[in-house]
Amino acid sequence: MKVLIISDVHANRPALNAVLANVPSYDLIIHSGDILGYGPYPNDVVERFKELNVISITGNHDRAVLSSNFDFPEIPTEIVYWTRDQLTDSNRKYLEQLPLEKSIEIDQTSVQLVHGSPQDPDEYVYPDDISSDLVVDEDILVYGHTHYPIIVSIDGCLVLNPGSVGQPRDGDLRGSYILYDTESGAVELNRFDYPRKVVTEKILQSQIPSDATTYFDGS
Ligand SMILES: [Mn+2]
Question: What pTM, to 2 d.p., does this model score?
Fold first, then answer.
C-alpha cells in the first residue's frame, strides 16, 4: 500500500490540490495536524479532507480555532478569530471529533501519529533536536508542527516529519510530503510547487490581516 504522509496544510487549498496532483498514486492519506490556521481556505480544506477520508489528528492551530480560551502566544489571534467565524457547523463538528494523537495499523506496519512529539503535542522538534525521545513502541512515528521535513531511523523506529504542505518554513517555499510504500519499505521525500500568488491574492480579498501573505510568499 502506498501511504501519502502530509502535515500542516494550514487552510491552503491550492497547495493541497497541488500535492494530490504531484503524487503519482496513493492508497491512503495521513496528516499529522494543523488543517487550519494562516490560510484563507478553511472550509474548502476541511471538505476535501472529508472527501478524501484523510486520517488526521488536530494540531495546535486547529485546537486554537475550536477553543474559546486558547493559549498559544505564537498564533496571530486575528487569524484564529477569522477562521472560527468562517467555519461551518458541520466542518467544526468534523474537527471536534479528531483525536490529539492516533495509532494505526497499515499492512502490519504500526504507525503513531502525533503533532509535536510523543510527549507533548505542542513541542517543536527541529532537525537539531532529534533524539531517542522520538522513539515510540511502533514501527513508525509521524509528527509535524515544525514544518521541517525529516526522515531518520532511530533504534529501529522510523521517524518521519513530512514538513508542511501549506506553509513550509525551511527556506524552500515549495510544499513537501512523504510517500511510504508498506510493501517495499521505500520512503521518499518530495517537494512540489503551487500557485502562491492565488493564495496571497485570496488573503488580500478576505478580512485576514494583509500581512498574513508573508506566511505564504516568504517576503
Ligand atoms: Mn503548523
Answer: 0.96
> Does residue 123 lie within any of the structural domains?
no
Query: Domain residues for 173?
Result: 2-99+163-217
Domain for residue 142, yes or no?
A: no
Cα-to-centroid distance, 161 and ligand 1 (Å)? 12
User: Residue 85: which CATH number?
Assistant: 3.60.21.10
**Model confidence over 41-57: pLDDT tens digits?**
999 999 999 999 999 99
Residue 20 lies in a domain: yes
Give the Å distance between the CA of 184 and the centre of ligand 1: 30
Structural domain includes residue 10:
yes
> How far is the centre of ligand 1, averaged over its atoms, from the C-alpha of 138 (Å)?
24
Place of cell 527556506: 171
Q: What is the C-alpha R_g of the chain?
A: 16
Q: Check residue 24 and give its pLDDT.
A: 86
Distance 66 CA to ligand 1 centre (A): 15
Question: What's the rounded Cα separation, in Å, for the pair 53 and 45?
Answer: 12
Q: Which residues make up the environment of ion ligand 1, defined by Cβ < 5 Å? A: 8, 34
The three grid cell numbers given for residue 128, joined into one nine-digit string:
537539531
Residues 39, 17: Cα–Cα separation, whole Å: 14
Domain count, the chain: 1
What are the pLDDT digits (tens) for 192-204?
999 999 999 999 9
